[in-house]
Write a structure and sequence with these properties.
By secondary structure, this protein is mostly beta strands. The protein is built from one helix and 39 strands. The longest helix has 17 residues. The radius of gyration is 23 Å and the shape is flat.
Length: 368
């Protein structure tokens, strides 16, 4: 019986930790709701940040501390400024000095850096003079400070530059794509784009293939096609650098669910991977499909269509005002979408139901 109770408590703890919460502001106070729309943390804070790595920074009087998802204070307020927890560590400021802490609030000794950077993919960038390197969570330097620029790591890879040339490195400093290109994109599933002298092309592994006539290529996403431009028109290329859909559109966005939004004749529609219209151009704006199988489309306001092109949620919302939204997080994320109506923010599910039947003065995306 005792083992069953302990196991149940462990499962409950894991469930709470895995639960995503969204920061919301009701009147003048900030709290956090779960995906049922109910408060997990009551709105009691004047200033607070999103959850990240299981903790959220909250301000009490003049100091910042961190709460867990049960609303209990985990790290007592004692910091003048904070970043977000990632990989179990967070950069904080106290008495004018920045340093790292762990989830117990203990100060961590790390290699010297002129500027403090957040951990991503298990490493943090360090700046020594005019050069950039990186170190891991144990404080071990994994990349000597020999680069001019290292962009934030994503899924274990980062764009890096030396002497005006760009390539891709991993968190151990291994060169994945040689640092010899004028520009390079994000490294996704072993593929990226690059510019070499005046030519644009695709790199699959570390082999560069020129895309005939291309003067711009966008990052690859969830599928093996990405969009590219030639002579002012946009089409789609594969990871071998071959034009799969000839450039004939004024604008385009990424494929997902085997559909991509394209702009032609002053309106947006959706094509399949053969380049044929599944949804004829009829919208003033359109975004890529999410993994939930819905895409935001705009008439006077925003609604959502399914992969057959059927409008399943009416066009009566705003979705992309402020908060630095990108194409990747507009619309549905994990079964809910952040929307605005009549000046208030809330969340709807894939059926169009308002979570908790409640609107807020402000709302952010759900985070772990």
């Amino acid at each position: 019986m005792r083992k069953i109770v302990i196991l149940s408590l462990m499962i409950l703890g894991q469930s709470i930790f895995a639960q995503e919460l969204a920061l919301v502001k009701e009147k003048a106070k900030i709290g956090y709701i779960d995906k049922s729309g109910n408060y997990s943390v009551q709105p009691t804070y004047d200033s607070a940040k999103d959850f990240s790595d299981g903790l959220a920074a909250v301000k009490v009087k003049d100091s910042w501390g961190f709460i867990g998802k049960d609303g209990q204070m985990v790290i007592e307020p004692s910091f003048s400024r904070t970043r977000d927890f990632n990989d179990g560590l967070c950069a904080v400021e106290r008495d004018g000095a920045w340093f790292y802490i762990n989830k117990k609030g203990e100060k961590q000794t790390m290699p010297y850096s002129d500027k403090i950077y957040d951990f991503t993919s298990g490493v943090a960038v360090m700046k020594v003079g005019n050069k950039i390197g990186a170190f891991d969570k144990a404080g071990k330097v994994t990349i000597p400070a020999e680069y001019d620029v290292i962009k934030p790591f994503q899924n274990g890879f980062a764009r890096a530059s030396k002497n005006g040339q760009w390539g891709i490195i991993d968190t151990n400093g291994k060169v994945i794509v040689p640092v010899e290109y004028k520009d390079v994109g994000e490294y996704v599933n072993g593929v990226t784009w690059a510019q070499k002298e005046k030519s644009y092309g695709v790199i699959d592994g570390n082999v560069f293939t020129v895309v005939e006539g291309a003067d711009k290529i966008w990052d690859f996403g969830n599928q093996t096609l990405t969009y590219a431009r030639r002579n002012g028109k946009v089409g789609f290329v594969d990871k071998a650098g071959k034009w799969i859909i000839e450039p004939k559109f004024a604008k385009a966005r990424a494929f997902n669910q085997n559909l991509a939004p394209v702009f032609e004749g002053g309106k947006w529609g959706y094509i399949n991977i053969e380049g044929n219209y599944v949804v004829e151009p009829s919208y003033n704006d359109a975004e890529s499909f999410s993994n939930d199988g819905l895409a935001p489309v705009k008439g006077k306001s925003w609604g959502f269509i399914d992969t057959s092109g059927k409008l399943v949620i009416p066009m009566e919302y705003d979705i992309s005002i402020s908060f630095g939204f990108t194409e990747k997080n507009k619309g549905f994320n994990g079964g809910v979408s952040r929307v605005k109506k009549s000046g208030k923010w809330g969340f709807i599910d894939t059926k169009g139901n308002l979570l908790g039947n409640k609107w807020f003065y402000n709302a952010e995306l759900f985070h772990n």
